[in-house]
Design a protein that fits this description.
The structure holds two protein chains of two kinds. In chain A, 45% of the residues lie in helices and 13% in strands. Chain A contains 14 helices and nine strands. Chain A is globular and about 70 Å long. The relative contact order of chain A is 0.09. Chain B has two domains: 140 residues, P-loop containing nucleotide triphosphate hydrolases (Rossmann fold, 3-Layer(aba) Sandwich); 90 residues. Chain B is built from 15 helices and nine strands. In chain B, the strands form three sheets. A five-stranded parallel sheet of chain B has the order 2-5-8-1-9, with helices on both faces. A two-stranded antiparallel sheet of chain B has the order 3-4. Chain B has a two-stranded antiparallel ribbon with strand order 6-7. In chain B, strand 6 and strand 7 form a beta hairpin. In chain B, helix 10 packs across helix 11. The longest helix of chain B has 15 residues. Chain B is elongated. The two termini of chain B are 32 Å apart. At the A-B interface, helix 2, helix 3, strand 1, helix 8 and helix 11 of A face helix 2, helix 5, helix 6, helix 9 and strand 9 of B. Chain B: InterPro entries: AAA+_ATPase (IPR003593), ATPase_dyneun-rel_AAA (IPR011704), CbbQ/NirQ/NorQ/GpvN (IPR050764), P-loop_NTPase (IPR027417). Chain B: GO terms for molecular function: ATP binding; ATP hydrolysis activity. Chain B: This is AAA domain-containing protein.
Chain lengths: 382, 303
Amino acid sequence: MPEEAAPAKAPPMLDAAVAFGRVLRGAGLRVGTDRVVGFARAMEELDAGSREDVYWAGRVTLTSRPEDVTIYDRAFELFWDSGGGARPRPRPKVRFSVPQPDQSVFPPKKTVEKNEGGEEAVKLRYSPIEVLRSKDFALYSPDEFAELNRLLADLRLSGALRRSRRLEPSARGRYDPRRTMQAAMRTGGEAVRHRFRKTRVQPRRVVLLCDVSGSMAPYSRALLRFLHAGVASGAKLEAFTLGTRLTRITKELTTRDPDQALRQASGAIEDISGGTRLGDAVKEFVDRWGQRGMARGAVVVVLSDGWDRGDVAVLAESMRRLNRLAYKTIWVNPLKSAPGYKPLAAGMAAALPHVDVFLSGHNFESLEELARAVAAAAEREG
Amino acid sequence: MPPGVSRSGELGELLRGESYLADEGLVTAIFLALKLGRPLFLEGEAGVGKTEVAKVLSRILDTPLIRLQCYEGIDVFQAVYEWDYARQLLHIRAAEAFGEEDRAHVERDLYDREFLVSRPLLQALEHRGPMPPVLLIDEVDRSDDEFEAYLLEILSDFAVTIPELGTIAAERPPVAVLTSNRTREVHDALKRRCLYHYIEHPGFEREVEIVKLRVPEAEEELARQVAAATENMRSMDLYKPPGVAETLDWTEALVALGARELDEKLVEATLGSVLKYREDQQRAKAAGLSALVGGVRSAGGDA
């Protein structure tokens, strides 16, 4: 850090801290009041005249992820170095642009009175769900996307079961001295009945990697909604997008409202509908998350058409590693449903040998099939 | 706070005295954690020295280090306390043998402190001494949500409630250090209680200094060559880029072999102490070991 361009004549620390906190919030960091107070306290312990000290005091109290640091650095520069730190501004002008997705992606609710045939909107409500279930996502109208949310809300996405390390009471299994003792207390200290416990089973983690590049655009909307439905259902699930780079969107998708969640997520994804460097993005996932533990024992689902503008060898190698780390790898390719489909895309052909299950994912029915595949992965191999 | 330290710079000197070279950010984070009595949450790649921070702190504060290694499925009975059931049962038998009639009395005795087994978290709270202990909660990311929630409670109140006994509170909050390898995102609520710092790999000059500090037997030239080679490896796109821990392991291995300078043969013989994946070793070899040795910055220039 460069040296003292200090916040000249600092106002009471708290005011400055509050104003800075507001800037960070505007930039997208989750900075609650408690953090702001922590920042002010930290500054009291350090030299508030030293830029370096202020910088670190803020960084250790106001950020909590390495990803936060870039935003923090930019905001810090703008706020403290523009002289703004001296005057706490009620409404800082600092705004970071959050790309707003196309209107049509998030249809305004209930604006359509009549559809193209001149029929009333009421009719849409009764629009045969069955048709929608098998309709290709690429052909969806905005209203049908809204309908899709309702369908997805009922879709349960939960990983195949695995044995956990936690124990639960059971009629037989390992001896349980704690509960035996508790029971003994009720029978005058005599362990009349012995208690046992066994390992609990719990769902495996599910990791979803969704391609959001240009060639996937007709499907990525629907698939992102699918990701949201999965995260919102409270399943043990992690979601990432693959594009020119890798973006983790689990946190953004935790909001209940699907439209809001997607808006947040697309703020996080900067490369939506951009080019595809599939191999690099998958590799980044394996390097940064997968190998450290996220993919271990998990069911990993890649949703992509397999178009890769990068080096195909990277994709093949990354998928091979991913397949070794993960419990099961599932590839979902919306194009697979096309009659006479062959995995001609170089990326797809390279990845296929390292995939356990290959599915289509172009309509709602195929997503149901995916949910079944995710849950069933264990049954074949106990 | 260790005696005689009132500014973060002084703390940095003390750490260095214990052979731990921390950058300004980490020193400030530790300083604030001690000053404000808040837990310190450290993240970073494996081998950057997260756990070491707690060890060094216990040395400079001259206080015991209490370590809780987290793992999947860890629960209260492994982390905080457990009743000693076998002894309790024996106690009942003994009471019977001595003809103790008062059942309520026997029961009350059973849940006495003497039948309680303290696990690390309770040990840290019960510690009595001139200085609070250093509590290292290692690899929090390996535990699960339920345990995280429990930690949250302990780290905000520094007290536990045992139903049969009552509340046990710390005299003074222990110096808590939490580490995570980021295999998963730890809950925000837990991070909010803590001061957060992400430890990066050190830069070249700092790494040379670390090597010289920790492996004093290594020659200056060797230290520089090793640091340059590991820095090279980190840019090589490996499964597991070497951390400072690996740099030190490697240097020690080289010193044990009597090396004074790095050459291709030595690298090949000792590669296993710095790269722990077969694929990584192959990649390094494919890139050319001589390149690793060759790309050394000249000594003395900017040291």
